[in-house]
Task: structure prediction
Amino acid sequence: MAEILAETPAVHPTEAIVIRLTRLTDTSLIVHWFTETHGLVKTVAKGARRPKSPFAGQLDLFFGGEITFSQARRGDLHTLREVAIRDWREGLRLHYDSTLLAAYCCQLMESAVEPEHSEPGFYDLLKRALDHFSSAPPSLRALRHFETELARLLGVFHHQYQAEISLRDALGLLPPSRGALLGRLSSAGDFRSSEPKIHE
Result:
């Protein structure tokens, strides 16, 4: 009995957000999650690309809810067992700049935290940011506020410098999508400067 228990992979339930999707085979996906209790996690969603898969319609960028995954015996690619999506964030698909802003924040967060390390404060920041981007127009102010809050969580924020500089010093290169995103938001005009901050 002890040997059987030892061979049974651990099963973990957690709140999670889809931050990246990668095609694995014709029928399966690798889903990159930012989870509340396990940080960055990679799972294989077997058969997710099949029309009758239980994962059909459940896996897309920025979706959030509760997942259950089985821990891999070797390596860092775990097996997705169940998904219950609650936060669809349809607003992020209504405006291309909103999609770009959300993707940039996910990329930045992915570069800022260690894989499979619990970071509930970082998870909360990303969740609040995506919820805000889904309900408010994209803006430079929102981008900069996210960067400032991330710098604070990392302990590198300095009031004399823009958060961008502090993050570059701490992380190295920022995601390359930032330049194009800044150009799009600047060309649109940051006339939304009176919008609320990402809700605490």
